[in-house]
Every structure is written in structure tokens, then in C-alpha cells.
Amino acid sequence: MSVDGTRNVDSTSLDTTRKPKYGRNKQLGAKLKRYGRERKEALEAARRTDILLQEEPGFLEPENEMEKTYEITQKALRENVDVGTAAKGFELRLKDYGPYSIDYSRNGRDLLIVGKKGHVASIDWKKGQLNTELHLNETCHAIKALHNDQFFAVAQKKYTFIYDKLGTEIHRMKQHIEATSLEFLPYHFLLVTAGQTGVIKYQDVSTGTLVAELKTKMGPTLSMAQNPWNAVINCGHSNGAVTLWSPSMPTPLVKIQASIAPVRALAVNREGNYMAVASSDRTVKIWDIRTYKEVDTYITPIPATSLDISDTGLLSVGWGPHTTVWKDIFKKRQDHPYMTHQIRGSRVQSTKFVPFEDILGVGHASGFSSLIIPGAGEANFDAWEINPYESAQQRQQNEVRALLNKLQPEMITLDPNVIGTVDTAVKQKSMLPDGDETKDAEGEEPDEEAKLDRYVPDKKGKQTALQRHMRKKTQNDLEERRLRTERNLKREQEISGRLERGQEVQNPALDRFK
Amino acid sequence: MAKRSNKQSRSKTNRRIQDALQIAEKSERYQRSSKDQGSDDSDTEGAIMNAKRYVQGDYGDDNEEFVDEEIDSDEAFGPDDDFEVFKSKGKDKTTAKGKGKGKPSHFEEEEEEDDDSEDEEGLVTLSQAWDMDDAEKKKANFSKSTQQLILNDNIGSGESSSEVDSSSEEEEEEDPFAEMEPYDEDEVELNTVVKDLDDADKNKKRILVSTKGEEDEYNVPTTGHKLSLKQMLEATGDSNIAQDNFLLRRKLVDGSESATMAVPLPKRLQQRKEREAAYELSKAEADKWQDTVKSLREAEHLVFPLQPQKDSDEEIEEPEAKELKPFTELETAVNKVLEASSLLDDKKESTFEEMATAKMDPADLRRRQNELRMMRELMFREERKAKRIKKIKSKTYHKIKKKERLRTEQLVEGDESDDEEHDSKRALERMSLKHKTNGKWAKSIIKSGMSKDKSVRDELEETLRQGERLRAKIQGDEDYSDARSISDLESDGEESDPELRSKIGKGVMNMDFMKKAEAKQKAANKEELERLRRFQEYGQEDDLDEFRNESTSANIVLNTGRRVYTPGAALEQKEIEEENVKVLEEHEIDNAKSLTNKLSKTAHRERSKDAEEKVKESESQNERQSEEENNSTANPWLTITTNGSTHKSKKVRVIDKDSSKSEKAAAKLSKTKKRSNAHLEEDGPIVDMNERLKIVDPYGSDEDEEDGSNVRMFKQTELIREAFAGDDVIDEFQKEKEATIKADGDKEVDLTLPGWGDWAGSDIKKKRRRKTLKVAGVVSEERRKDRQLNSVIINEKVNKKNLKYRTDKVPYPFETMAQYEQSLRTPLGQEWITRTTHQELITPRVIVNHGAVVDPLDAPFK
Description:
The complex is a heterodimer of chains A (514) and B (862).
Chain A (H helix, E strand, L loop, with lengths): L25 H23 L25 H7 L2 H6 L2 E3 L6 E5 L5 E6 L3 E6 L4 E7 L4 E6 L5 E6 L3 E5 L4 E5 L5 E7 L4 E6 L3 E6 L5 E6 L5 E6 L6 E5 L3 E5 L8 E4 L5 E6 L5 E6 L3 E6 L4 E7 L4 E6 L5 E5 L2 E5 L12 E4 L5 E6 L5 E6 L2 E6 L19 H13 L34 E2 L7 H6 L11 H8 L7 H17 L5 H5 L1 H4 L3
Antiparallel strand pairs in A: 1-28, 2-3, 3-4, 4-5, 6-7, 7-8, 8-9, 10-11, 11-12, 12-13, 14-15, 15-16, 16-17, 18-19, 19-20, 20-21, 22-23, 23-24, 24-25, 26-27, 27-28
Helix pairs in contact in A: 6-7
Chain B lengths: L1 H14 L4 H17 L14 H6 L12 H7 L3 H23 L3 H14 L7 H18 L22 H15 L5 H17 L26 H8 L2 H6 L1 H9 L12 H21 L2 H9 L3 E3 L7 H11 L6 H12 L5 H14 L2 H30 L3 H18 L6 H14 L7 H9 L5 H42 L2 H7 L7 H27 L1 H11 L2 E7 L2 E6 L1 H19 L8 H7 L2 H15 L4 H11 L10 H11 L4 H23 L15 H6 L5 H15 L5 H16 L2 E4 L20 E5 L16 E3 L22 H9 L9 H8 L3 E3 L14
Parallel strand pairs in B: 1-7
Antiparallel strand pairs in B: 2-3, 4-5
Helix pairs in contact in B: 5-8, 5-9, 22-24, 22-26, 27-30, 28-30, 29-31, 30-31
């Protein structure tokens, strides 16, 4: 993400005290000096642009110790905030087709809801305008907006479908069977599905090809989340394991035994540092996924069903009828949640923070509620990246630019910074016998026979013209010419000091029985 | 070569023996030479030849008529022949040749002089003959009648011409040497040449070359005396010329007329020297470019054309402006005047000014400066004084001011002292709505007739009083402002009396239509005034009526400075008044204590908070508070409920605080908390996977008050443990991890084939040999990244698919990996860096402006 301009610029490496050693190459020295200067200037310029980030995220601050932010109800908030914000906290009562899973488009403009019983709707929620509404008449599990608000994917009973903004069915992806969770990697244009089959599938939505099918071999995948920093897919399984996947590896990059009970929900923060894992044993655990260490454990009275982390690092936990929002949970252990909300008589199905808004969307059994969570949204947006106010033309241009900048699926690694660097890792050795490693177990000196027994791979181009001639000649006719060539060959081998295999060459047909 | 020529001439003489004249000459010459030099070569006789005859026989073809093989070879003798001879004979030859060749010119000249003295005219010295040069030769060829005495052998070839002059001859002779000899023999050769030259001096050889021919313009007979340059100069009669002449002088310095020139270097060396010199020159020339080229090479960006073309306007106009000269007479006149008065130049002007001061006495000057300073100071003081005086106001002014201030103070009711406090008070007021009886709480009290309780009644009373006070305040304010405005208007009216107006002026204001308009306006003003006065008299009722009728909203004052517009507020106010009366009546009747709890349920939260603070203060003495805090930190989920029992308990404490009951309740509460706390401390909230699951159920502890909370807890944990008892996930995971460690580690493969290569039989000794192969795995156990992490398996296999996005070597210009990575560290994309940085980084190195002609680099002469 580019919202904070200097994130990828590593400030630790900027030490001017140590003088770089350039060797004798003056040109290279000048070049490196230039790189150093450019870097310094870039950092300085980035620092100076901070004044352009005018908006500041504001949280609810208690005036005294006795005041608690979690005691403030949505109603009280709505009464006290400005009219525009108050209008954003709304509620949709949809009792018939629940529970509802939700998703927001990347710029937060469109709200997508899908009820378990097949009710799908795409809503421009700020305008209060319904884009489309579908009744699919079959079980629907998840919904996901693709790269912009024009398309969305719905995981239905058997297949996963792609619809456009107006509700037209664009694709039926028959390879994605019985998916229950969907993810979309916007920089790679990959739609990832996982579900009952236990296979994670990556579909490139720009080319339409199925990029990878990864068998988890761990039964149905219960939950899935992407790491926004490195596009690694984290999957939660019924044995309490969380696996990290890249489409270029058939085995998981990392397997973490996060809990002892099935993993119900997962979330990774924007910086890709922390992962929240909610499991059926009522725990919500915070994992540091740089060191793969458990940081903290919280207990929910009812097993949590949904987790989401906002751009500013607020964690929303949906458990039973409650939604709890935690602040600074990755920094230190919190005693109190930041905010809470209860939807009586309903169960929370999914919670999603709206990008660039202080709003948390909650899909539950009897509809959808939009909660005001001060400080949840990133205050400053980068219009190059995601523009919540984009026009149709800007959207089109962004789409083209994004396609031009599309990353290849093979580039997904745990550490994306290794792309383009020098590979220092030892190359994986093949399992073929190497020959040189052969040694006697008894400690005996390897005798002649053993030497001959060695596997010698066929090497092309080693044969001389005479050898080739000999090989092509049939064994039966003993012509003078053949004898001559044989003689010549022998002499040649004598000269080159390779007599040890002379016999074999003469009799290559029998050689394989040795 | 001389030797050769001698040889040749000898042969020739043999052939031409009949020529009597020649014989005579020869004999003569012979005698002479023998006289001059003791020893004599018989060879030299051949040096004489009949040039005439020689010439007669045409060079090429005619020669062959009287030719034998020797001549033939001689005629064919060219540089090629030379080459061959020397090549074959080597170095030995050189000394021999040197003898013949070394023939200093002065000696020859001497001889010739002698010859000339004896022989008659028609003889020309060699030098003279050669001075005539080729052109003459050609002429001679054409004429054929011309008699010339020319050195015999090389006559046919053009190159031979140079041989006549001794110095040039030597040079010529050296050439073939230089050309043919190998490089390393240079020095040796040079030495031999020098030596030969010395030798040549000793072994002089006299050659008489004489020509007996007709006299013509090219062939002037001399009396045997050589015409020297000196003689020629003397003939001019100008002694100065002779003295000035460089050649002559040089001769004088040398002492001898015919001093030899230094031996020139072999041509190859000479050329090398020349090349070196030329290189130095060209290098110096090229070096001038070095700085420019270096700077261009080091430049990050080059924009062509390098020198931006200047705007033609600037270039032209500036010099014009400078060189502006007066054209007309008038202009010149003005210019003159300006110049004279030194107005034309700033510099002159300033100097003119300085002159005045310069003329003055320094003491005088100082005095003057001080004077000026003093004046300035005094002026400044005066100014300040005036300002101060202007500020001073009269008593009445202050009186009025004071009144005004008091009035405003009254308005704010002395709360100004602390602005913040005031603000907070106001906020509290607004939130609690303490001055109104239309709040939920007040209404409920009024409705349910609960005001028998004294404290409640007191509170209600307080609210009413507060409301009254506020209302009074606002009304007072309004009255004041109204009165003032009317009086102001009146005073305005008085001010504008006609007399005063008429005094002002007779301008436009005195005109008829203006007056009319004024009168009209005045009338309107009066009317307005009347209306206002009426309004003041009849007062509030009218006002209220008006409001009610006119708009749907009414003014209700919540607090100072705040207004809220709500419809029907006035009506409500009336109601409030009625209610107030009712409440006041009621609240005297009874004061029962039992209802406090009931009331507390519906009490406002804000109020409860205030009370809570008080409770805290009291509790801080006996550590209860800390316990409570502990409790809350231990289980965050305890506190999350927004409604329900926790608040209830708080309120109980709040209300009962004064009474003895409150302490009782608090004690009870603390007791239960303590108990729940005890087992919370036992098992921390963090669950270790490998341990037994111990989870605290906060709701369970809250629900059951005193009995069996522990039992229930136990049940809960047991239940959960039972629920997941079947799947032993941890063990499975450990097993899997071990398997992966094993699979990834180094392996030994047994390659032994049973029975292979063995013989069967009874007396065969069985060779027990095992062939194994060590296969390097992905990573050894010690090196695994997850060796410290119990519940993590990290895949260490190389991702082959993304190997193509990495390099196996450091790319070319970089020498180390660190250098390469340094080049990658600054991102280029504009998503990561600022726009300007991005554009700087992606600027190409060479930019050629579109349509610009790129000229070659200017010569860098600074």
C-alpha cells in the first residue's frame, strides 16, 4: 500500500557513517554514490510530503478514567456525530434470507451482501442506491468484490459465479466446486477459493486461467484470509492449523498449529505483521507472522465467527450477537475493548471494515448493520492506488494501469522483497545418485568393481568421430576398414590416456549388463 | 656511391680513350692530384668524362650503343640495386663504402678551384652545376648542344641531382641504410656513419669535374675561381648586407667557410621524433577537451543542445540600450546638461553628495551628525507623548466604561474567572438538563408521583430553580438590549435635525429632490420608532403571541449563549410551570427512603458517573478500588456489556452512599469480587496449547453470586476439553513435524542389490558390502528456521517457480551483493515515492529536445 509513502523505503539501511567500499571501479563508485544520494533525497522528499496528509485519524478518547469508550452506544454516537456520518450508520432488516455475509469493494463505495438462502445485493451504500439484487435460490456462502466495483464473485452451492455490477452472470467457474470462502488478490488479479473440497484454487481473472490448485490434505477449509503485504493466503483448518500458501508451491509455506480446535476465522493486518485467529475453543489468538510466535490470547464467551482488521489496526470480533472492536491489540494486551455493539436476537456472520471510512459493516442473521467506529478508516487515501471518489473514466484508467502493473503469481513469496535479488540459497539437490558420494559402509577401500559399478550418466558430445563411427558400424562385418578404424581408435585412446574403458567401447552392446 | 661512380667512370674512360682532350685533362688532373696528395688512387682517373659525348648519347637508349655489361648494370643502377648490394655485403661493406663515399664538399671545392685555375672556362663546380638543377637538365636535353659537366653516374635519374652537394649526398646515401636495416641496429649504424664521416675527412678523394662546352647562359665560363656568395654580396656594394647575412656570419663564427652541418639522424628516427613531437602537440590539443568530456561523462542527465540558445531579443537589445547615443541636436543638448550636472550617472551623483561632506572639517561633520541625531530623538519623543496624551480619557468616559463593564459582568454572572470551568459547567448543564423538567427522569418522577422522597424533591426543586434563574437571566438581557436600541434610535433622530443639516452645505443635499427623499425617510423612521415603542409598552404577551403565530419554532433557552429551536416549546414551558407548582406541593408531603433503589434504576448515567467518582474517593482508603481494577484487568470481557447488571450494582452504591447501607453493599460486593478474583489469579487468561485447558468463564462467575462458581467453572473447562478430546491435534502436528524434518534432512540411500555380483556356492566367502549414497537434503535439522518454534513448520524447499525472478550472480557493474541491493533499495514507482522524485529517477540520461539541432561540442577554450 502506498498510503504511507515511505513504508517500503527501509530507513535502517541509511547509515551515512560507514563509508562504502567501491574497489577500484570509479564508475561504479560514482553510481553507488548516486544511489545513496537519490535514496536520501527520496526519503527527505517523502518526509516532506507528510504535510499533504491533512486528515488525521481520530479515536474516541475518554475524558477521564471513569469514562469508557466501550460504553458509548451507537445511538449515542449517532446523536453526537455530524449528520453525514450519522447517516452512514444504518441498518438493513432482512429477516428472510439471512445470515448475511458481506464484502466491500476495494474503494469502499459498494456494499455487497449475500444471504445464506441466496439473496445477493450490491448497494452503493453512501448514496443509498441499489445496484442490483438477485435471488439465486440456492445456498450461497461468500461474496467477494473483484478489482473494482464492476464485478463480484459469489460462492454458491456448487460452483462459484462471477456477476457484474448489474447482476448479469458473467462466468460460472466450474472448476471451483463447493467453495465456502473467497479471497481476491488485487495486484495479481487472482481469485482464490477454498471450501469443502480442501483444495485451494487460484483463478486469474484477467486471463481466465486456473493458475494453481493446491491440495491442503486437511479436509474442508473453514476460513481464509489474505496477507495484504505479501499476497500469501492463510487458511484455517478443522484441526486448528493455519497454513500459508503461495500458488507456486504445492505445499504450504508455513504451517502453524494455532489452536486445538477448528479455526473459524482469520484476519491479517495491512502491514502483514500480525494474524488474528479465532477458533471454536472460544479463543482469539494474536500471532506474529514474522517470527511465527503467539503474542496473545483472548477469550470470547461464545466462539467468534468473524474477524477483520481495519487499516488503522482495529480488530473487530463477531461472536454470537456481539461485535467487539479492539484497539491497539497488536501493541499490548488490552483490558477493555474499544467499542462494542450487540444485535439482539441475531448472530453475527461477518464483519468488515469499510476502507477509508470509520464504519464497520456487520452481516448477521437478520440483516446488515453499519456501525460507526471512530478511527477505523485510513484518513488519507492515495488516488493513485484506490480512489473512493473516482469517476468512471478514472476507474477505467486505473483498471488498465493495474493490468499493466499486474504481478505474476510466481512472485508471491513470504518475503516479497526477495524478488530481483541475488539468490544465495543453495540449490536444491536432486535425489539422483551423485556417484561421488558413494562409499563403502564397512569402511573398505572401494575396489575396481565398485568403481566400474558407478553410475555414469550419458554425456553427449564426448565421443570422437571415430567412436561415433564405431558405434554406427554393425558388429558383424569385419572389413579392413573397420579394423583400421578400430586400430586408430585404440591408438587414440592410448594417446589420450583413457584406456580403462577401451574394452567397453568395443563392446557397447554388452555394456549394459555390467 | 662515389666509389661506384669512380668505377663507372674508369670503365668509361677506357672506352673513350680516343678523346685526346680528355686524356690531356686527365693527365693534368692526375698530376695535380698527385701533387696535392702524396698517395693517389688510380681509380680516380675515371672521374673525368666527356660530358658532351655523354650527353650526346641519349640517356636511355643511346647509352646502349657503346655499352658493355658494366655500363648496363650501372645504368640500371637504382635504389633497388643499392639495396641489393648492401644487403648482400652487410656491414663490412659499409666501411669500405664509407671510404669512397665520404667526400667533404670543401675539399672538392678546393680541388675544383685548382682545376678551374688550370683548366679554362666551361667547367662548373658541382654545386653550381646542380644549382642549375633539373630544369636546366631538361633544357639541355632538348637542346642537346649544351655541354655540361655533370657528375657521371646518376645523371639519368632525378634523384642523382641531390648527390652533388656533399652533404646532401651523404644524406642520400644514408637513406637506403636506414630503410633496410633492422630496428635494433640503429645505434650501431649511427656510430658507423659518424665514424665513416671522420674517416672521410682523412681519405680525401679528389674529383675533377670539368666541362668543356660552349658558353651560354647556363654554362658560364669561369676563370677557375668559384663565385662565392661573399663575392656576390660584395658586388652589391652594400656592406651592411654582407654583415647582416646569416650565412656569412655563420661562416665567420665557424672560422672556416665551409663548416659541415651536423649529421642528421636516420630518417626513421627522425620520423619517430617527429611523430613524438606531433603526438605531444595533438595530445595537448586533445587534453583541452578532457574536462569537458569528463564533466559530460559524469553528468547524470544530458539535455541536447547543451547550450540553450539565447533569446535573440535579450542579446540584441541590451547592447543597444547601453550604446544608446543621442541622435538629434536636442538629445545631445539634454545629454550634455545631464552630464554636466552629473545626473546621468548614479555614481557621479553619489560622489557629488560625498564631496560636500568631504569638504567639511571632521569635527564639524561630527557636530552636524550629532545635531541631526538629537533632532530625530526629540521628534520621536514628542510623537510618543502625543500618542499617550491622546489615549487619556475624561472622567465621564471612564464612568461610562465602568458601567458598561459592570453590565457585561452581570450578564456572565462572574463566571468569567475560569473559562474552562464555565464551559464544563455549561456542558454538564446541557447534558443533565438540570434546569428542565421535560427530561425523562423528571417526567417519570412527576408522572409516578414519586416526589414524596425528600431528596428527589430537593433535586427537582433545584432543577426548577435553575431553570428559573436562567430564564430570568435571559429575559433581563433582552430587556436591556431593547431599551438601548430604542434610545439609540431616538438619539439618531435628534441628531438629524434640519437646521444642522442645512448648515452642512449647499451641495446636492440642499437640492429639492434630495430634501424630499430625506423627509420621506424621516417619516418612515418615525413610524418605525413608534412601532417599537408600542412593542415595549405592551411587552411580553404580544411578543409571545407573535412568535406563536408567526413561526412553528420558539426560542427556548437551555443555557447561556445557547438556543435550541423546538416547536411548541412555549407551550411546554407553561406545562413546566404547572408541573413545578404541583411538585412543590407534593414534595412537602412525604419523604420515604424505601424508593431509592427504584429510582436508581432509571437514573441518568452521567449522574451516576459523578457519583461513582465520589465512591471511588471513599473507597480508595480501603483498597477496594484496586481490587476492582485487578478484577477488570484480569478479564476484559467482564466489562464489555453496555447494559445490565454491572451498572445496576454501581448505582446501588451511588445512591446509598450516604446511608450506612451503602457500606454494607460495597462490602458485600467486594467480597464476591475477591472470591472470583482468587481463582482468576490462579489460572491466567493465556492458554498454553500443551497444557490443560483452563478457561475462565466470566459470565459464569458473574451469574452465580456466592455458591458453586468454582464447580461450574470446572464443569465448563472439562466440557471444552471433552469436546476436543478426540482429535489429538498437537501430537499429530508433532509427528508431522518430525516427518518433515526427516524428509528435508540429509539422507543415506542404500544402493546394494541383494545377490548382485555374488556367486552362489558353499565355499564362497560372502562379501558383506553395502553401498550407500549420501543425499543432501533440503536443510539439516540444526539449520531449520522452525527449530525453536514448537507449533510451526516452515517449508524450506526452494520455490523453483520464482527462481526466474532472482539472479544467481551479482549483475555486471556491481561487485558485491550489497552494492547491487543498494541499487534496488530506492523504489522507482510513484506509488512509493513522491512525484518529483519519481520523475527525477526515471529521467533518461540523454534527452534531445525535439527538433533541436545538436551541434558538435564547442571547443573548450577557456
